């Protein structure tokens, strides 16, 4: 509550306060203390006061022909060594594009993955094949799944062994009473 109240006071009329602060005349800096003659340091002339002298303005805008001719005679040649490509054995360069296959399912339209590299499956396909294997293990064997989805047999066996889809179980009413008492 206190933070909200503080925020209201902080943001109240902030634009007009900012304009007033910007338009206010800036304070003058305090005068410097006069140094004793023991520490005499000549103060540098103010840069704007130098521009008021006509001789200095002419010197600034005058072109020096001798320097211009010397500048025109300058020619720069680049002699860098040719860049060598590090030979890393080609492990970073793709040798060939991976083969892709179309996915089996997809009900999400544009969000669905359309193509998957061979040897991999999408999440929708993984859940589907796990559910099919759970419901009909005689039909959906590991070998059939490996052929159907272009997977290796050892990967399919690991998938079927270690990943189990969720199941929903409803308990009868008698069991609920037995649990409560």
From TrEMBL:
GO biological process, one term: mitochondrial respiratory chain complex I assembly
Source organism superkingdom: Eukaryota
InterPro entries: NDUFAF4
Pfam families named among the record's database cross-references: UPF0240 (PF06784)
Listed GO CC annotations: mitochondrion
Assembly, per entry: Binds calmodulin. Interacts with NDUFAF3.
Family: Belongs to the NDUFAF4 family.
Protein name: NADH dehydrogenase [ubiquinone] 1 alpha subcomplex assembly factor 4
Organism annotation: Probosciger aterrimus (Palm cockatoo)
Gene that produces this protein: Ndufaf4
